[in-house]
Write a structure and sequence with these properties.
- A hairpin with a 7-residue loop joins strand 7 and strand 8.
- The protein contains 4 helices and 12 strands; from the N terminus they run E-E-E-E-H-E-E-H-H-E-E-E-H-E-E-E.
- Strands 1, 2, 3, 4, 5, 6, 7, 8, 9, 10, 11 and 12 form a 12-stranded mixed β-sheet that branches.
- The longest helix has 15 residues.
- The protein is α+β, with helices and mostly antiparallel strands.
């Protein structure tokens, strides 16, 4: 809306610590703590729940991460949401290397346990996906595509224990609070 000086970051004090948002050209860049993934045993029947073979399974403190064989498989998934809802996590990130030019990896995020069958573009998931793919691809600057119906491009920069996410934003609602 032009209320923030172009050279000043917006600062948000949150339960995760200080988060900032800055303009970067025509994008907005957000600075978040990374969410590390760890090796874990996949839940029983996960391949059947997703409808695809999981080639690598990891878990973070919030979500499961399932790497699949290809972008086409990630895009074509039709998971069993009722069974996904029973998993004891917020959601599941499914991902693969990208086959589409201009992208490093693709993903989708399913969170029926928190009332969201599929989130269109999930910043918090990329705080885990960024470091995961950074290790796998040997790079710290990546471009990701979240392949939901709406879809979205996310620029990802991994900087140690921080992840910077870039994307475009559109104002969908504005409100004014009036003190009584």
């Amino acid at each position: 809306s032009g209320r923030l000086d172009r050279h000043e970051p917006a600062r948000f004090h949150t339960l995760s610590g200080l988060l900032t948002a800055e303009r970067r050209g025509d994008a907005i860049e957000l600075d978040f703590p990374a969410t590390p993934d760890e090796p874990a045993a996949a839940p029983d029947g996960l391949d059947e729940i997703l409808g695809a073979r999981v080639v690598n399974f990891r878990s973070s403190r919030f979500d499961h991460l399932a790497e699949l064989e290809s972008e086409a498989i990630v895009r074509g998934l039709r998971p069993d949401f009722a069974r996904l809802k029973s998993l004891p996590v917020r959601g599941i990130m499914v991902t693969s290397r990208a086959a589409s030019p201009g992208f490093d990896f693709v993903s989708r995020f399913f969170g029926p346990a928190v009332g969201i069958d599929e989130d269109p573009v999930t910043g918090s998931a990329h705080c885990c996906l960024g470091p995961y793919w950074s290790r796998r691809l040997g790079k710290t600057e990546m471009t990701a595509y979240q392949a939901s119906r709406r879809g979205g491009v996310v620029g990802v920069t991994v900087m140690g224990d921080r992840v910077r996410l870039r994307g475009r934003a559109v104002t969908v609602m504005a409100a004014k609070l009036i003190a009584g």
